[in-house]
Amino acid sequence: MSSGKKTFLKVIILGDSGVGKTSLMQQFVNGKFSHQYKATIGADFLTKELIIDDKNVTMQIWDTAGQERFQSLGVAFYRGADCCVLVYDVTNTKSFESVSSWRDEFLVQANIKDPENFPFVVIGNKIDVEENKRLISNKKATTLCSNLGSLPYFETSAKEAVNVEQAFDVVARNALQQEENEEYNEDYSDAINIHLENEPSSCAC
Amino acid sequence: MSIQIVAPIALLVLNNKRSITASAVYGTQLFFGLNDGSLMVYDIKDDYGLNQVSKTPNDHSSKKVDRNVAGTDIFEDYDFSQGSNFYKFKKEVNKIVDKPIDQLEILPDMNFLVILSNGLVSIFKLDDFTLEEKLVKFKHANLVKSYSNIIENGLDTNLDESYIYENSDEDYSDTVSLAAVNSEFNLNNHTTKEEVKINDYRSYLCIAFKRKLMVYSFVKNEFNSKIEYNLNDKVKNLSFLSTELLLIVTIDNNFYLLNLYEEDERFIKKLPFFTTSVVNSTSFSYFNKSNSVKISLLKTLPHINIISKESVGLKINDNGEYINYNHGRKKAISMKNFNRKNPLLWLKKPDIIKYWFPYLVLSYGNEILEIRNLENGNLIQSIAIRSNIKDFVLIEGNYLIIITDDGKIHSFSQVTYDSQLDQFEKINKIDEAISLVEKLPSKLFKREFDEDLTEKDEKFLKLREYQIRYAEILFHNKKYEQAMYLFISFMAPPDIVISLFPPIVKGISSNNDDNDNDDSNNNNNNDALLINLEDINIFNENDAFGDMTLPSPISGRYSPTTAETSTVSENNGKKIVERQKLIESVRSLIPYLADARRKLSKLLSPDSSKFEWKGITISKRLYIPLKHQHEHQHESEQDQDQNQNIDKTLLKLAEQVDTVLFRCYLISSPGLIGPLLRVNNYCDISTVEKNLTRNQMYKELIDFYHGKNLHEKSLKLLKRLSSEQNNGNVFEGPIATVQYLQKLNNNDIGLIFEYIQWPIEVDYNYGKEIFINDSIESESLDKFRVLEFLENLKNISNELNKLDLIETYLEHIIDELNDQTTKFHTKLAELYLKHLELNKNDKEIWDKLEKFLQISNYYDFTKILKLIDGKQNYLIMKTSVLSKLSRHDEVFNILIYECGEYDMALNYCLKFYEKPEQNEKLGNKLLSLLLSKYLDPLPSVDNAKEDLYFNKALEILSSPSGLCLDFLELLTKLSNAKRKIPISQISNFLKLNLNQLTKELNRSIINGNSLKLSNTKLKLTRSLTKNESIIITETSKCSMCKKKLGYSVLSWFPDGTVVHYGCSKLYKQQFDDKNQ
Q1: In what residue span(s) does the CNH domain sit (chain B) (predicted)?
Q2: Of the residues B293, B316, B346, which one is the last residue of a structural domain?
């Protein structure tokens, strides 16, 4: 890939309701944090332009409604995802336990061809809370991530902008890697390569 | 067989020799302009009820319609008599103009009939044909054109949003989210209609003359403005793209876009697409400068306009931009439009081309009329009229009026849409049927008897039916990608899609296809359809030609013998190709299945069994294929039953989808099996079991069992695997079983008990991992049952191990979980005792017991007391138990007389002072009791001991603890003691006490004195306050207003100042400021 060509990366954020998916995305893209909780409806995305190792990259970050689960999302949501971010809340045990099932759901729904090597990044959010409110230790989280296949793990605070940049930097790099791998794997997006017959590029005459 | 879209209605032959030179239509009125300048008006008698011919065309086609070799229908001999009353002569205005009428235009909202004749434009009233105005200014007018957005708006109502949707560029609107909220994307498409409302009703009259264009505009039936535009060349043709934009083509074949809202000519935009690169193929290169080239401009569906020139039709949108159906950026869009074409190609150049909803009608000079599909230009019907076609007009309500050279006026009507669809179906032109259904208004699809479904639902169902059929055709033609795209887009029922695949994928052998509802699927057949992963893997790596036993996917027949015996390489080569095909087809199926399972799970979810899809609310009833529904209707008319049946069908479909998805993963991406089986799924248990067992994918199988709550199966399997001796067996030994059991909770406590036995037999510590685990599952277990289970454990090699296990468990629930149940506390004490019986020297247990008896308040004291009673080595512990029972006397007896633990005895007393819940009195009482024990020992005590005790008593008295005792009571006690006490020996004690008492006395005196002092102080203050006064005389003045105080109401401030009450506010301010 030439460095002049603009690369388009699609990143999907998943996790239980209320773990801070939208906040993370807002913090990363707009540098803002809102104290009010507003449930996401359906799905929405924001884009951010990045430069990674001299490459111009447009990162499209898809945010989902955590309470919707997967049955609410259609084909277009998953199409061409390059990286998936799994978010949990360090003060919420259930959200932590859901991380691996979000991963499984994603793999099935997105029809990932090479599930072992698809890039996931795990984020434990809300580390700004007092220590006694924190229920998931760093150790517990890293153990889970290594069991799921050495997934990169970050502890963030969307509220105080702690570690958010760093986490998304890794997300972007891994997504870029994935995107480049795909380019060499023609088989990936087109299982059957059928050239549309009688379909001229612009004019049939 | 060709299609018949039009059927003849009536024929009108004009009597005289005059010929028709212009025609126009308004409502049901037909206007003919003649070569002698006369105007004829006919009315169409529309008493056919339906505007379309309801007969099926086949009824008469066999008798009346000839068909020439090329498949063109020839209507000449057709009997038009049935429509003899069709034309009703209304009026003839003789010589309304002097010269032949060249063009007729109607402006209904202004009540104008515009006639162009001999380069002159005249305006007549539409109702009585009186002259309104002669526009003498334009002596060389060559074209007039009227436009009204009321008519445009009326046309729009023929269509509904579903068609507009199909044309929209964005496909995110419905495919990103199935949530029951309308996406914003959809809203954008409705703006055009809104605009009409905002802009009010507008109409225009355009007159082209020389190199100029005059545009009159009318707003709300009133003249608004006239603007003259200068152009580079004479106008050849023009067409309104919208209320705002006018497309003009000039004689030199240049195209211009004119914005009518801008009065300045500078806003005339030259369109590039015919001259430059947009259409750069040869087809347009012959667009020469010839004046004779005819260019037709027509408005068709909303946002689609056609420019027809020579034998090419080019579609442009309302902004004058070329419509590109295959911009490759988004595959979904080009997929959606794969049946649409731009530009369209005709056989040769048409003379006239018009849009006749929903088709294009073209006429060629040589008497041929063609009906073509708007989307792709495909020819649908060709009609021969045995006379030159001069013109044809289209009347609202599907009439087509053809005017021929020889003064004949033929009228045709479209046959009913149902009949058109029937014909398309019969000859398998499903794409044409789709094209038609897409455009038809929903109301045509409403079936009276079904009240549950809206007309929009019905249209969707019809469209879905055709799209699925079309997708099946595409699939059979090996256009898998398009087929799958349509299957997903129109939610094809899974059973239909799956049935297209070979048995190895669908999991049902072909001879079972017809009765796939049969629950007792032949197991033997299914066994043959097991997928062997190794074969697939070998294939995937593309490097092996070994013995592959995969059944042939294409033939659909499994023949193990052939496959197993064949070692010939050519066979293998063939198999490789077949497997490549298999994997490809499987990969095209997977996205469909993933989508179907998402939709099914949405429908099956209890809280929201509906979702929005392409603007339609998809309910269970709408999703389930029709054939299933009919079955159910026969079974029972009752709604409830029907709903249950629908649920059953949905569940069955969900099972089919997940099971086939499982098979697909097995064939093409085994890495996804784990994720699929771990999430909520409806996979068929036996299929999964057999396939995974065959491929030894035990980890996935165990995950699957776990998800399905088939724990017993898991545990049995794990037990079996644990003993299998082969390299790399990750399930060897009890660890896997233990880990599995850790995930179970109290609901499966029976299974836990059953399957933890064998690991415990291997190593009793595994028991701890289940019952003593810091997890929700472990804590949920019924403690009584666990204890019972542990107590009844057999086969533990060493009784001490068993004791250790139970003790650890009880310690865990008592210490960690703070359980206060007497049974557990008592049990633990009993076990410690038992443990010590077996191993007297176990210091650790001894200490534990000792501590436990002291600390715990929940064991059965009496029971434990009984157990240790009379056992010499437990004497000290016995005191702990006795103490719990408040039998302090006995405690002292043991400590003093039996054990001689005097310090312990003293500490025993002292510790009661430390405990907040015990009052001091008890401490005092015990200390006193202890003293009595020493001073009045049991009679049996010998003298030496007596001395000792006496000394101990003295020690207590001399120590600070002695001070705690009540002095008077003690004195009594001492004087009553058996032994007389020399004062010298207790002088210390007495001194201390006396000191203490003196101290108390002194303190009281000081306190008394200080109280007296403060009393005197208070008295002084009182009298001072009482005496405070100020004398006001007749001359005393207010310090604020300097007036006499007199007898007014006064305010007296703390600083002694007296002011009027009225001035007090001011003074208070001053006073406060001063103080600050």
Answers
A1: 17-398
A2: B346
Cβ count within 10 A of residue B40: 20
Task: Tell which B residues from 306 to 335 touch A, by Cβ distance under 8 Å.
Answer: 312, 324, 326, 332, 334
Whole-angstrom distance between the N-terminal and C-terminal Cα of chain B? 111
Specify the 3-state DSSP secondary structure of B359. strand
Chain A closest-CA separation from residue B739 CA (Å): 14
Query: Which DSSP state fits B1044?
Result: B
Q: Of all residues in chain B, what percent carry a pLDDT higher than 90?
A: 21
Which positions 467-506 of B are in contact with A (Cβ < 8 Å)? 478-482, 488
Using the beta-carbon criterion (under 8 Å), do B678 and A204 form an inter-chain contact? no
How far is the C-alpha of A124 from the C-alpha of B458, rounded, in Å?
A: 48
Same domain membership, residue B306 and residue B236: yes
> Is pLDDT at B47 greater than 50 in this prediction?
yes
Domain boundary among the residues B686, B708, B730 is at: B708
User: How many domains is chain B partitioned into structurally?
Assistant: 4
CATH topology of domain A6-191: Rossmann fold (3.40.50)
- In a domain, residue B17? The reply is no
Residue B612's φ and ψ, nearest 5 degrees, are -90, 135
Q: Please indicate, yes or no, whether residues B456 and B312 belong to a single structural domain of this protein.
A: no
The Cα of A46 is separated from the nearest Cα of chain B by a number of Å equal to 14
Summarised one tens digit per residue, pLDDT across range B380-408 is: 998 888 788 888 888 766 678 888 877 78
* Domain with B675 in it: 441-509+578-628+642-708
Q: In this structure, is residue B811 part of a structural domain?
A: no
State the average pLDDT for chain B.
Answer: 78
Q: What's the confidence (pLDDT) of residue B865? A: 87
Interface check for B676 against chain A (CB to CB < 8 A): the answer is yes
Q: Report ipTM for this prediction.
A: 0.84
Beta bridge partners of B104: B115
CB distance B679–A108 less than 8 Å? Answer: yes
A114 reaches B (C-beta below 8 A) = yes
What CA–CA distances, in Å, run from B238 to B160, B248, B300, B308, B357? 27, 4, 15, 12, 21
Two tokens, residue B123: 């305006």
* Helix B685-694, helix B698-707: angle, nearest 10: 160
**pLDDT tens digits along B498-510:** 999 888 888 876 5
Give the pair of three-digit tokens for residue B158.
Answer: 């023929």
Contact B671 A76 (CB under 8 A): no
pLDDT of A75 strictly over 70: no
Q: Any idea which of A22-31, B128-137, B141-150, B962-971 has the lowest mean pLDDT?
A: B962-971
Q: Is B566 at the interface with chain A, CB within 8 A?
A: no
Query: Is residue B665 within 8 Å of residue B657, measured between CB atoms?
Result: no
Instruction: Check if A76 contacts B (Cβ < 8 Å).
Output: yes
Half-sphere exposure at residue B660, Cβ-oriented, CA atoms within 13 angstroms: 33
Predicted model pTM: 0.74
Distance from CA of A93 to the nearest CA of B (A): 11
Please name the residues between 679 and 718 in chain B that touch chain A, using a CB distance below 8 Å.
679
Scan for tokens 């506010």, then name that residue: B1065
Q: Cα separations (Å) of B516 from B412, B498, B522, B573, B642?
A: 49, 12, 10, 33, 21
Find which of B334, B665, B672 to mutate to test the A interface (most A CBs within 10 Å of its CB). Answer: B672
Cβ pair B377, B346 in contact under 8 A = yes
Strand pairing class (B212-219; B222-230):
antiparallel
In chain B, whose CA is at the least distance from the CA of A70? B598
- CA B638/CA B1059 separation, integer angstroms: 97
Q: What is the pLDDT of residue B336?
A: 67
Q: B569-592, pLDDT tens digit by residue?
A: 667 777 778 888 888 888 889 989
Q: What is the mean pLDDT of residues B1013-1027?
A: 91
What is the Cα–Cα distance from B913 to B928, expressed in whole angstroms? 13
B174 interfaces chain A, CB cutoff of 8 Å: yes
Question: What 8-state DSSP symbol labels residue B550?
Answer: P
